[in-house]
Design brief:
alpha/beta; 10 helices; protease; Thermitase-like_dom; serine protease; Alkaline serine protease; Peptidase_S8_Ser-AS
Length: about 400
């Protein structure tokens, strides 16, 4: 197997596109302030990265249609047609001044919340190390021993909400379900970025097939759901709808190797909906090397995943703090990329699918989402930094399946 070094693109805060020497990610920094007139948050002008001219709104229950129309008319806002596969639990508005409209709508007693349609980016960090050799993720997490007890189930799914998945890749083609593409609004969620395919391979690549890499949950299927574009960016509305879609499709596990430093009610509602439907949600903790929370990883119903290297040292790029639940290998991870290839990548994006794959193994044992979360956290190995950089330690697959 010849592995290649990946070069890619990064979105800067000014929305300029910069070609980097290696795959990278810059997270939008969001500063939210409380409104005096509403418990909902407002965005300070210039501090958040969001879709120009778009606001996400949810009216309170039982508000009359005529009242909604009057409210939107006063805000000079128009509802954007909902053309994707999910009946959204919110509306996306087309407006002139996002900040002013958000402030005005959150002061309206008929509005549950209004917030910018934030942009989210993939959670990887520059990878400067190129070498050919071996995977260490399954070995370091005692997954080989866990495979003696369970390898997942073909009747279950890990939803990869990402830049898509190359469902023709020889290490993925026999097990990937084509879900929905929320970028192009069709049922062909092909990866145009590399990120989603790499994540999918780590979670559940075909295994024992005499080629490529081994996935953490070899027998569990992949539900490919595209919510990020070719540059690795995606809107709050698309990601929230993708989470809802995945839960409605019955995905036992949902992986979100993406995020934003932005506390958003729309996203948290989508996460809570999926949790209440029985899905366990795993998300990357972010790659800014800070203790600041990263969403959706920080939400109560999400397992937040930090990254460690092959020696169980915290990756320099990984966000940290006791809000990070567990860690997993995330430095120089070998996995699938589009076109039938393989590459090394680093980031909490690469750590998250290790945990998602473990969740797939536990789901095949008939465990509920809360049992899966409990077993992952309670069995984690207390490596250096546990209790400070992360709450529970590095995942231990064998210990988890034995519980």
């Amino acid at each position: 197997m010849k592995l290649k070094k990946v070069a890619g693109l990064s979105l800067s805060l000014a929305l300029s596109l910069a070609v980097l020497p290696a795959v990278g990610e810059a997270s939008p920094q969001v500063d939210l302030t409380e409104s005096n007139a509403s418990p909902m948050k407002q965005v300070e002008k210039g501090t958040a990265d969001y879709v120009k001219g778009e606001v996400v709104i949810k009216f309170k229950d039982n508000v009359k249609q005529s009242t909604k129309k009057e409210t939107l008319s006063q805000a000079n806002a128009k509802v954007k047609p909902d053309v994707d596969a999910v009946e959204s639990k919110f509306d996306v508005l087309e407006v002139g001044n996002v900040e002013a409209v958000v402030k005005a709508l959150n002061n309206n007693p008929n509005v549950e919340y209004a917030e910018p349609n934030y942009k989210f980016n993939v959670s990887w960090t520059p990878n400067d190390t190129y070498y050919s050799g071996y995977q260490y993720g399954p070995q370091n997490t005692n997954t080989e021993q866990a495979w003696n007890l369970t390898r997942g189930s073909s009747s279950q799914e890990i939803a990869i909400i990402d830049s898509g998945v190359d469902y023709n890749h020889p290490d993925l083609d026999g097990k990937t379900i084509r879900g929905y593409d929320f970028v192009d609004n069709d049922y062909y969620p092909m990866d145009e970025n590399d990120h989603g395919t790499h994540v999918a391979g780590t979670a559940a690549a075909e295994t024992n097939n005499s080629q490529g890499v081994a996935g953490m949950a070899p027998n569990t299927r992949i539900l490919a759901v595209r919510a990020l574009d070719a540059n690795g960016g995606g809107s709050l509305a698309n990601i929230a709808d993708a989470i809802t879609y995945s839960a409605d499709q019955g995905a036992e596990v949902i992986n979100l190797s993406l995020g934003c430093n932005c506390d958003t009610t729309t996203l948290e509602n989508a996460v809570n909906y999926a949790w209440n439907k029985g899905s366990v949600i795993i998300a990357a903790a972010g790659n800014d090397g800070v203790s600041t929370t990263f969403e959706p990883a920080s939400y109560a119903n999400v397992i937040a995943v930090g990254a460690v290297d092959q020696y169980d040292n915290k990756a320099s790029f990984s966000n940290y703090g006791t809000w990070v639940d567990v860690t997993a290998p995330g430095v120089d991870i070998a996995s699938t990329v589009p076109g039938g290839g393989y590459a090394y990548m680093s980031g909490t994006s690469m750590a998250s699918p290790h945990v998602a794959g473990l969740a797939g193994l536990l789901a095949s044992q008939g465990k509920s989402n809360w049992q899966i979360r409990q077993d992952i956290e309670q069995s984690a190995d207390a490596i250096s930094g546990t209790g400070y950089y992360f709450e529970h330690g590095r995942i231990d697959s064998y210990g988890a399946v034995l519980r």
